[in-house]
Amino acid sequence: MNRRTFLQNSSSLALGAALLASPAAPAAFAATAPSPRRQRVLRAAHLTDIHVMPQMDGFQNPPEGMTSALRHAQTQIDKPELLLFGGDLIMDSLKTEKAKSIAQWDLWSKIFSAEVKTPYKLALGNHDVFGWALRDQPELAADPHFGKGLALERLGMKDRYYSFDQAGWHFVVLDSMMIDYANKHGYTARLDDAQFAWLARDLAAVAASTHICILSHIPLLSVCVFFDDDLESSGSWVVPGAWTHIDARRIKNLFHKHPNVKVCLSGHVHLADDVTYLGVRYLCNGAVSGGWWKGDYQEFPPAYALVDFYDDGTVDNQLVAYRKV
Ligand SMILES: [Zn+2]
Questions:
Q1: pTM of this structure
Q2: Pairwise CA distance, residues 174 & 154, whole Å
Q3: Cα 107–chain centre separation
Q4: 190 CA distance to ligand 1 centroid (A)?
Q5: CATH number for the domain that contains residue 186
Q6: How remote is the CA of residue 39 from the centroid of ligand 1, in Å?
Q7: How high is the pLDDT of residue 18?
Q8: Which structural domain, as residue segments, surrounds residue 255?
Q9: N or C end of the chain: smaller count of CB under 10 Å?
């Protein structure tokens, strides 16, 4: 036995001993296991990436699709008590002229006010931001609606990020987008420093016994982003910072100080995943618009998610394909 194989053998012995001594992974690495006595405290529907716009040739009727999803979710026999709208509410205003952006918000408001009969919360998505990708119109920067102003006004939102308490859980809604002209999309997915500092204070103020759910448009951590587009063709996995939070490391470090952060909900990718990392469950929940109202996106049909929250800090998450296309 040479020195190298001895070291390998002794380290595997040590590992084996450690596994025998503690058969379960340390709690901080695993998702919270459901308690057999857990009680459901809240059922929510998470509707992300609705991307509503007027019907045009080649699209599968976005206004009817948004209406169908809202009716489907709210007529479940076991009804959700909260609707979480995860951003990308309209098809696009990042690179769309103002009049056409406003026409999309008008359509959003019309369907929303007619159909939504359940308490709701809203998050902003990148496509809800006005003008950041219209680089040939620098005068837009002087428009008070430039950036997030138009969406906040149309949605009646006071703040682009905020938190609230419901059913014994603390919910945090984040704003994922920072302007970035160097990026062809006009934004990068990250929390500005003021928002990050606010998040740190907000989490610190929550009682250790209260479970926390984070809602963001862009995933804080995601696996499905690897399959969005042909990322591996260069021979390296290079995931754009517009697809998943580029500041994931400092967010992960912050969450690790707060074991009551249990679940993070997101959209943006139009694919779905369920990733547990350091005890936090990250759920990317597809898209109501599927493939931007042109059918499925890869394996994923147009869908919303039903998310059941329990008193032990666990959630059950179920994607619901509400429409046959
Ligand atoms: Zn998006």
A1: 0.91
A2: 18
A3: 23
A4: 13
A5: 3.60.21.10
A6: 33
A7: 45
A8: 27-321
A9: N
